[in-house]
Amino acid sequence: MAVQVFTAVTGAAWESALVGALDRSDHGVTVVRRCVDVSELLAAAATGTGQAALLSAELRRLDGDAVARLGAAGVAVVGLVEPGDDRAAERLRQLGVAHVLPADAEPEDIARALREAVAGAPPAPRDVADPLAALPELGVLPEGGARPDGRGRLVAVWGPTGAPGRTTVAVGLADEAARLGVPTLLVDADVHGGVVAQVLGLLDDSPGLAGAARLAGAGTLDRAALLRLAWAVHPRLHVLTGLARADRWPELRPRAVGTVLEEARTLAELTVVDCAFNLEDDEELSFDTAAPRRNGATLAVLEAADTVLCVSGADPVALQRSIRALDELREALPDVQPVLVVNQVRRGPVPGDPRAEIAAALQRFAGREVAFFLPADRRATDAALAAGRTLAEVAPASALRGELRALAAVLAGVPAPASSRRGLRGVRRAG
Q1: What pLDDT is attached to residue 285?
Q2: In whole angstroms, what separates CA 392 from the centre of its chain?
Q3: Which of 103, 110, 176, 316 shows the smallest number of beta carbons within 10 Å?
Q4: Phi, psi dihedrals of residue 186, rounded to the nearest 5°
Q5: Tell me, what's the pLDDT at 141?
Q6: How far is the first Cα of the chain from the last one, in angstroms, to the nearest whole number?
C-alpha cells in the first residue's frame, strides 16, 4: 500500500514538478494533500489521513512544537532544503526532522526517505553536510579539550519541595568543577523559582535559558548562540540564568529544553542543571498532547541527565519529603536511578549520630544508600549569599566547600583534591 503523504513546500519553484513526479511514478507514495502553511498541515495531520509530511525549511511558523505535534499525530516528517543550504538543513535537524534531503534529489530518493521515515528506519547518509562538524571551539572547551565522543556529561540537581539546598549544591558543584580545570556550564531550569542569578549576583532579566529555548524552538540554536546567552562567571564557568518570573514557565517547552541540553554537551565538559522539585502530571492537560506542561521541563532534564542527584535535607520533615519524592520519581521515570545526597547535616534535629541515623532511615524507607553527606555551614552560606559569590571565594576553608569539591571531582571524572577525605559511593566515575 502506498504511503499517504502531505506536502507543505509552498513557494518553492520546484514544488509542483516534484509533486507531479511523485504522483506519476510508481514510488510507493501518494500525495493526498498539498498544504499552504503549518496550520493547514497540522489540521490535515489531525484527520489521520496521512502517514508522512514532506516540508521545506522555509515554511513559515515551522518550529519544534509543530514537528512534535506531527509526530504525536503519527505523521513522519521529511525535510527538503535548497541545495547547499547547510544552515537550513541543520535547523530542520534541530527541530527534530531526522530525514533531510536537498530539493534537487531524485524523486525516487525522496520517496525512499518518506517510506523510511514512516517505517522508523534510521536515515541514510545524505548529500547535505552537517555544518557543526566544521565549527571551531568557542572558548569554553580548551583547545584539544573536547571529549572523545564530543559530548560532555550532564548532571541534574533535583530534590523535594522545601529548602533542601538544591541551588547551593548546584552552584557549588559547578564552581568547584570549574576550579578543578573542567569547563562547566551551570543551567537554572527551575520553573517554580530559579534563583541562580541572584545567588551569583547576576542580572536576572537576561534571556538565559528562556532565550536559548526560543532559539531551539525556531531551530536556530548553535554553540555560538548558546555561548552568547551565557554569563561568564570566570574563564571555565558559564551560567544560563533562569526565568525572571515563575509565570514565564510556558517558554520552557520540554523539547526545546532537551535541544538546549544537547547543545550544552558540545559546549562544556560538564553541565550542571538546577531543577524544580515538582514531577506531578496535570491530569486535565494529559489528554492534550499539544498543551504545555509546567513540569515537563523538569522531567526532560531528569530523563536526559547522565547522573541525577537527589538532594535531601537532614531533618525529619525533609527526610520524609525526600522519601515521598523518590517514590514519585520512580513512578514518573522508572529508569532513572538517583544518587542520594543529604545536605545540611548537623547534630540536633536527629538524635544520636546524624549520619548513621539518616542513612539507616533512608535505607529502610526508601531503599536507597546515601552516597554523600554535606555538612551544615550556615555562616559560610550566609556570607556567600550576602556577597553574591561562591563558597570558594568567601569561605575557602569551609567544610561544606571541601565536600562539594570532592563531589565535583567524582562527577567530573577528575582526580580528587588531596584534601578530600573520601570518594563518592554509588556514582560511577565519568569515562
Answers
A1: 46
A2: 27
A3: 316
A4: -105, 125
A5: 44
A6: 48
**Three cell numbers at 178?**
570549574
Q: What is the DSSP letter of 36?
A: S
Same domain, 326 and 193: yes
Chain position carrying cell 525549511: 57
Point out the residues of the chain with pLDDT beneath 50: 121-148, 283-288, 421-426, 428-431
Per-residue CA distances from 222 to 137, 143, 191, 216, 274 (Å): 12, 19, 23, 8, 22
pLDDT at 149: 56
φ, ψ for residue 324, nearest 5 deg: -65, -40
Per-residue confidence (pLDDT) for residue 25, from 0 to 100: 65
* Structural contact between residues 244 and 204, judged by C-beta atoms closer than 8 angstroms: yes
Which residue segment(s) compose the domain that 264 sits in? 153-412
For residue 400, what is the enclosing H or E element? helix 399-412
pTM: 0.71
Q: Give the model's pLDDT for residue 290.
A: 55
8-state DSSP, 192: T
Q: How far apart (Å, rounded) are the C-alpha atoms in residues 55 and 79?
A: 5
Name residues whose C-beta falls within 8 Å of residue 312's C-beta, 6 or more positions apart in sequence: 159, 160, 164, 318, 319, 321, 322, 340, 341, 342, 343, 362
The answer to whether residues 75 and 119 belong to one domain is: yes
